[in-house]
Amino acid sequence: MLVVAVAALTGCATLDAGQCQSAYEVGFRDAIFGLQRQESLYAPICSRNGVQLDTPRYVQGWQEGKYEFDRRKAHGGVD
Fold first, then answer.
1. How far apart are CA 62 and CA 18, in angstroms?
2. 16: closest CA among 38, 54, 47, 49?
3. In a domain, 5, yes or no
4. What is the total count of domains within the chain?
5. Does 4 map to a domain?
6. What spatial distance separates the first Cα and last Cα of the chain, rounded to whole Å?
């Protein structure tokens, strides 16, 4: 069971170079799905892909996605 959970979490932390360049969208996506911030996982992955993660843009996207997630949850739109 633990192996499956680790494999699933590792799969979530995989980004290609294009996604690394879309830090805001990735942050928003993570938050809207109820995930915690993942920039500490994404930064080394992006670096291996030859791209630097724009951490401030990721955080901005995550914050705005979290706001939207919370708004939807308050109105019964998220389980």
1. 18
2. 49
3. no
4. 1
5. no
6. 24
Q: Which residue has the tokens 């170079």?
A: 17
Give me the amino acid identity at 7. A
Domain contains 47: yes
* Rounded-to-integer distance, Cα 67 and Cα 74, Å: 11
Structure tokens at 17: 């170079």
Q: Is residue 2 part of a domain?
A: no
Range of the domain at 63: 15-74
Tracing tokens 């690394």 back to the chain, one arrives at: 20
pLDDT digits (tens, 9 = 90+) for 13-55: 688 988 999 999 999 999 999 999 999 999 999 999 999 999 9
